Structure formats: structure tokens, C-alpha cells
Amino acid sequence: MLMETGLDYPEIREQVARLCDGFPGTYWRRLEAEGAYPEAFVEALTESGYLAALIPEAFGGAGLPLRAAAVILETIHAQGCSAAACHAQMYTMGTLLRHGSPAQQARYLPAIARGELRLQAFGVSEPGSGSDTPALRTRAVRDGDHYVVTGQKIWTSRALHSDLMLLLVRTTPVEDCRKRSDGLTVLLVDLRDALGQGLSIRPIETMINHQTTEIFIDGLKVPAENVIGEAGSGFRYILDGMNAERILLAGEALGDGRYFIERAVAYAKERVVFGRLIGQNQGIQFPLARARVQLDAADLMARQAAALFDAGEPCGGAANSAKLLTSEAAWQAAEVCFQTFGGFAFAKEYDIERKWRECRLFQTAPVSTNMILAYVAQTVLGLPRGY
After folding, report:
1. What phi and psi, each to the nearest 5 degrees, are found at residue 50?
2. Which helix (H) or strand (E) holds 110?
3. What was the pLDDT predicted at 240?
4. How far apart are CA 175 and CA 177, in angstroms?
5. What is the CA radius of gyration of the chain?
6. Are residues 145 and 91 located together in one domain of the fold?
7. Are residues 364 and 257 in the same domain?
């Protein structure tokens, strides 16, 4: 990984890089061939305390700012590994930390910090609503001391490898709400109790080993005490978590960009064609230089977004901008790396094609580039809503 002077949290970067050295490309290629979850990698991150980075010290975590967590994820990706198997614990945990009751925090956060519980699943998207979250149709009806939930979720990653899941449901029909975003509630679901008791999970095969699933819910009973915050205010809590998610995943995209540039530069310094190093050719130099400049610029936006979040300032515009710029900079670096390696980029043993496929996801999830542009146009620039 590029360990340059001036990078923040150098100790964290060094320690995480050392941990990742134990999980080389052969490890990730084997998992992909088997469609398996990186259990050993997640356990190593958990035991080292990195997945509890954002949990306050009072609950057994490190109490670090969001920027430090972004650096952890950035370093993981810069080393050629993938944090997709566990990154949700960082931003999903924030919903519980900021909006959960003291009893909920005391019950779950220390166990999550110790690695006894995993909070990796975030059930929001649905087949019929997509990015239009207020249009979701999963319903939860209060019945005494519990809610009865019926509906369906899609793209709920890691649900088969998580103990807990945050589930966004509609508790008040949209026609009875003043705003479409009202009437949504966040439930904390214990998947260990729910599986086979009104909830089932089906894996979705995708072009990358992302461990994503579809969830079917029919008459699932969830205790009313598992409501996070106030019933009906869930959309606001989810938006709060989404800003953290965008900033953290911007860190991952930056890490991918660093990985691609470092690999390409190293290869360009040793690959000889027509009697000369390909790194001498401007056709190689200029695309790499441009990719590096774009990545550095995106890095600054990501730092600004994290600084605003950690200061408690409004950060929606910065978080979305960081997500857009880092995803596009990473993809540009991926393309340049692919071109630099030429035919060898297609060989799985080089890991370029694997990381190239993984990197493409950032322009689609957790929010697409067009949705970010719509947000900036309407919220930052004040243009009329287009939807």
C-alpha cells in the first residue's frame, strides 16, 4: 500500500495493513470460487477491535471518530482485501448508538464490541421501491407487546452471517401520513430467533462475492421493545446512518484506487515491451498521473465529509459528493490499471479483474451516481424536485 508522508492515522494504517498481509489474493480467490464468507478475516478484524472502532469506550469499543473508521476501511481495500463482509457493522451500529434507548445500548453494544454478536444486516431496499424508500411496503402492525411484520426485502447483504438486523418497516399507512417519509419505523430483529419463525433468507448470486440476500417475512413477531427511537420516525434515523455509510464507503473506494494505482505503477516499472519499460511511454504515464490526481482530489472531499460528520454539522451534501467523487476516481484508476496490465489483467491470479469487478459496485450502491446528482441538484442547488 502507498504509505505516504502526510496520511492521517499512520499507526492504524500500519497495523491494519499488517493484519491484511495474512489474507493474500489466494484467500479471496478461493472464497469467491466457493461462494464463501470470509469468516477468518472478519474474526481477525473483530479480535483486533477494528469493527468496534466507533463504539464508545463505555461500551467496550475504541470510541474513535468516523474518519478513523474510514481509514480502517480504506487500508483494507488498499491492501487488496474487501471490507464488504463486515463494514455494515460500523454504520449500522450508529443507528443503535445515536437513537437506541439506554437499555438497548447496554444490552447490545458491549456484546457487539466483544464480538459475541454481529450487527451486519440492514433491511431497507425492496423489489418494488428501490431508492424510493418511503414507497416500501413491508408492514408492521402493533399487537399488544409486539409487532407483526409482513413483507419482503432485497439486497440485504450478510443476513446469513449476522445475528441482528435493522429492519425498516411501515407502521402507519402512507395515506394517513402528512409526509410520505412519515410512518416508518426501525426494528431491531434478532435473526437467531426470527429464522424459521416468519422470516426466511435466500442468497442472491451476483458478479462479485458480496453475500447479499433476499428476505421474506410473513407474520414475524418482533417485541415492541425492539423499536429503535420513536415509532414513525425511522426515516430520519436511516438518513442519519446513510451519511455515515456514504463516508465510510468513500474510504473503501479510495483504498481501491490506491491499490490499482500502486499495482499499475509497479508493473509499469518492470514490464518491458519493444525493448523499453512501458512506464516510459506517455500513453501509460499520463493516464496513471491523471488517475492519481483525481484520487487525491476525491480524498480531500472524503476528509471534509468526515470532518463535518464528526463535528455534528450538516454533511449530506459533502457525504454524497465524497461518495460520487471517490467511486468515479476509483473506477478510473481501475480502468487505467486494467489497461496497463493488458492481457494479464484478465488472469485471475493477478487479482486485478476481481478488484475491478468489486470496484464497479460503488457507482451503484449504496446509492447510484444519478441519485447523488439529483440530491445535489435539489438539496444543495435548490432546483425543483425531479421526482
Report:
1. -70, -30
2. helix 102-114
3. 80
4. 6
5. 21
6. no
7. yes
